[in-house]
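Take a look at my tokenised protein here and describe the backbone shape.
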Amino acid sequence: PKRMKHTPIKSMRSEEGWVSVTHHTSEIMYQPLVDELRCHRHADTSCILTQTNEEAVILTGLLRKEGVPSKLIQSMDGFRFWNLSEIRYFLRYLDKWVTTPVIPGELWEEAKRATSKTYARSQNLDLVKRCFEQFEHLNQTKYISDFKEFVFESSLEDFCDISGPDVVVSTIHKAKGREFDDVYMLLNDNYAKNAELMRRYYVGITRAKNRLFIHTNGHCFDRLTADRHDRDDRSYTMPEEIVLQLTFRDVYLEFFKGIKREVLALQSGDPLQYRDFTLYTEKTDHPVARLSNQMKKDLTEWFAKGYRVKSATVSFIVAWKPKDAPKEDPETAVLLADLILTL
């Protein structure tokens, strides 16, 4: 209802595609979706679409366990690409040496080399390099004001490389504007059947260029014209290993005040130790992050299901300051981590 488009929806391609729907009775559908992906995967681009971040990270962990290279595009609430420590370093380098509105080519290259050297072990370095490449492609003359506006308006997912062989795992929301040869959708029947949900599903199914595989335990697609409708009455359990990606909501932000030096000494990918809802550096055993009360409750629920924290690694180091803080107050360095949980 209330659609802005009134003309029939037609395929952009004349070639025949493939649509299949697997109807599950099990509430948990992670394993059969991954099994089908492994069976049909080839050299073309593939994407798994979910409705929640939690579903996306669980599938990412399962893919890695099955030996399928994957790339997660996740919604990071409160996270701005502008605040990434690698980007802040690059900006400070430019501000220190630039003396004109235009960034000299030699200075631009020096800043890139310095950032690459300083953050050589960071797993986010490829994201930052793609940011530089996109700006260079759009701006032959590099104004410092243009670059600051460019990174301020950018999001982390803008620089995720989806052209390679890795399977992309994303929420439907984050997949807007992207296309993949094969799309696998995990659609749990936990949502009110309204126009908003139908629009979300429409966005998801129109990401597919060649083949669409839907796994659902609901009835929205019962009458969908498809090449194949399968019914799976098997019962499935949760994967043995899952990945929890911490956001600002999951850490106690006030804890980071006073430990900026220790946090900035770390880089994405560095291992951490977990004990009693606190993360410590592996080498010095210094506390560098504490979980929020809500995350403590969430983690306790995972523990009740039999999971335990196997390992932890640094995901992002970002600048942060309370919204109501005076402008002259310094920023705090916040550490966001990945927790690997196993049964």
Residues 106 and 112 are 10 Å apart (CA to CA). The two ends are 45 Å apart (CA to CA). The first helix runs from residue 30 to 40.
